[in-house]
Write a structure and sequence with these properties.
mainly alpha, single chain, 3% strand, 115 residues, rod-shaped, two-stranded antiparallel ribbon
Length: 115
């Protein structure tokens, strides 16, 4: 005599994750004991791999947000221990912005009240 053997363990009524030999319907056992053991090992390994993949994605997203919201400025040079006002040969300071589009530096000052 023949009977129906539902081996589909995918999404739907029979879906279980991680895969385990317990997913076989009761009364219709179609796996041998060695197959059940292999399916159990596969289920554990697949859950561990999925966990590691999720951990890597979470770590990369965390690093992305960390880079977006943390300072990345690193000063060039070191503090000389001299205040600007202590240098006698300098009479004024004019902040400048250097641009590759201009041959001369641009002044970075507010000139609304000049003149």
């Amino acid at each position: 005599s023949y009977h129906f053997c539902n081996q589909y363990i995918g999404p739907g009524q029979n879906f279980k994750f991680p895969v385990s030999p317990d997913a076989q319907p009761s009364g219709s056992k179609w796996m041998t004991s060695s197959q059940e053991q292999l399916v159990g090992i596969y289920g554990i390994v697949s859950a561990v791999v999925l966990g590691l993949v999720c951990a890597v994605f979470a770590y990369r997203i965390f690093r992305l947000f960390q880079k977006l919201f943390s300072a990345s400025y690193k000063p060039a040079g070191s503090d000389q221990g001299m205040h600007f006002s202590e240098v006698g040969t300098i009479s004024s300071y004019i902040p400048q912005v250097k641009s590759e589009q201009f041959t001369y530096p641009l002044l970075a000052v507010n000139v609304d009240y000049v003149g």
